[in-house]
């Protein structure tokens, strides 16, 4: 029998500092110390927690969001930069894996970015949310397939998606096919109302069942004072309540510990990694339960860049040459050749 492997994890539900990047970072580092002090080997924070989630964009019309949007730019995270250095140093000092959501600034654009730090402090993954949702599209640019990775860490293979990316079954399957053992989900929290918390719970429990992995989910929290500050119109403040479902779910779809749905706190749970095999023995979505000859996923995992530098072939010859000359045959051959830049996930290696 294989030796039983237990991983202790922590899911953090706290409020950001709405005044400064430094203030929220201080809260992150304090929560890391607290979770590590309780034995956590993996610590998860909410979606774009640093410096804060752009709640303003949900309750204010676009014409009134300019000042807050610019303030978010001023407080956003450069990767790599001082924030990643500070969090990486804390991860290394404490010996913990950290998954942190940030507003990343890349020159003139902001992105919803998930960062995975290994226990040695190295940044294992920087990924950007592939499709911002509704109001978020006024704030963030789109990510690409390069970030759809499950990475090896000190606690096992970890994959991550943000919020409604979990409603994209192909994005989830891309991580499942890479055999993620712990899936990190991050949502903003304090948004939409109780129905959002219910939807989060359904979503993460379903992913745990379908993927046969553990799910660690963190949502954010806003105080009454912060809600009033973000939404001066009292009628809109209800839109910034509820929606909290910080939870840790087993591969069998059940809560490992009761979820945290209000207030601040850190959930701590021990994960029996043997439950992954127990679940997959019955149903392995990317193994014996898959039908790759019928259904498969094409993943373009190239980084999206605005400029492609390189030598490109120059077409020559007359119009008639283009239809029946050797150049046409060579182009046809090229069109029929497999594109090696596209990773084809046709079921997982067994």
TrEMBL record:
InterPro entries membership: C-N_Hydrolase, C-N_Hydrolase_sf, Nitrilase, Nitrilase/CN_hydratase_CS, Nitrilases_CHs
CDD domains recorded: nitrilases_CHs
Domain CN hydrolase: 7-273
Organism domain of life: Bacteria
Top enzyme class: hydrolase
Keyword Hydrolase: yes
Family, similarity comment: Belongs to the carbon-nitrogen hydrolase superfamily. Nitrilase family.
NCBIfam families in the record: nitrile_sll0784 (TIGR04048)
UniProt-listed PANTHER family: CN HYDROLASE DOMAIN-CONTAINING PROTEIN, NITRILASE
Protein name, per record: Aliphatic nitrilase
Lineage: Bacteria, Pseudomonadati, Pseudomonadota, Alphaproteobacteria, Hyphomicrobiales
């Amino acid at each position: 029998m294989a030796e039983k492997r237990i991983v202790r994890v922590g899911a953090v539900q706290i409020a950001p500092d709405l005044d400064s990047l430094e203030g929220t970072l201080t809260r992150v580092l304090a929560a890391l110390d607290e979770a590590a002090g309780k034995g956590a080997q993996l610590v998860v924070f909410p979606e774009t927690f640093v410096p804060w989630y752009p709640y303003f964009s949900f309750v204010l019309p676009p014409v009134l969001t300019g000042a807050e949007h610019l303030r978010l730019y001023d407080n956003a995270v450069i990767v790599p930069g001082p924030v990643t250095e500070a969090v990486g140093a804390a991860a290394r000092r404490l010996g913990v894996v950290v998954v942190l959501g940030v507003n990343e600034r890349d020159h003139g654009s902001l992105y919803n970015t998930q960062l995975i730090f290994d226990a040695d402090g190295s940044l294992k993954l920087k990924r950007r949310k592939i499709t911002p949702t509704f109001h978020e599209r006024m704030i963030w640019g789109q990510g690409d397939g390069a970030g759809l990775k499950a990475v090896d860490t000190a606690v096992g293979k970890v994959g991550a998606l943000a919020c409604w990316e979990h409603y994209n079954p192909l994005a989830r399957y891309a991580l499942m096919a890479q055999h993620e053992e712990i899936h990190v989900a991050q949502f903003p929290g304090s948004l939409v109302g109780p129905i959002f918390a219910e939807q989060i719970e359904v979503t993460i429990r379903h992913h745990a069942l379908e993927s046969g992995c553990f799910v660690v989910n963190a949502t954010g929290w806003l105080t009454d004072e912060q809600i009033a500050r973000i939404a001066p119109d009292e009628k809109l403040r209800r839109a910034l309540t509820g929606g909290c479902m910080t939870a840790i779910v087993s591969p069998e779809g059940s809560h490992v510990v009761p979820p945290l749905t209000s207030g601040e706190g850190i959930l701590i749970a021990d994960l029996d990694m043997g439950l992954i095999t127990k679940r997959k023995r019955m149903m392995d979505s990317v193994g014996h339960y898959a039908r790759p000859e019928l259904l498969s996923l094409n993943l373009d995992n190239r980084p999206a860049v605005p400029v492609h530098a390189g030598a490109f072939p120059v077409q020559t010859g007359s119009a008639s040459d283009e239809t029946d000359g050797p150049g046409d045959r060579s182009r046809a051959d090229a069109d029929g050749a497999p594109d090696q830049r596209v990773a084809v996930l046709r079921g997982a290696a067994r």
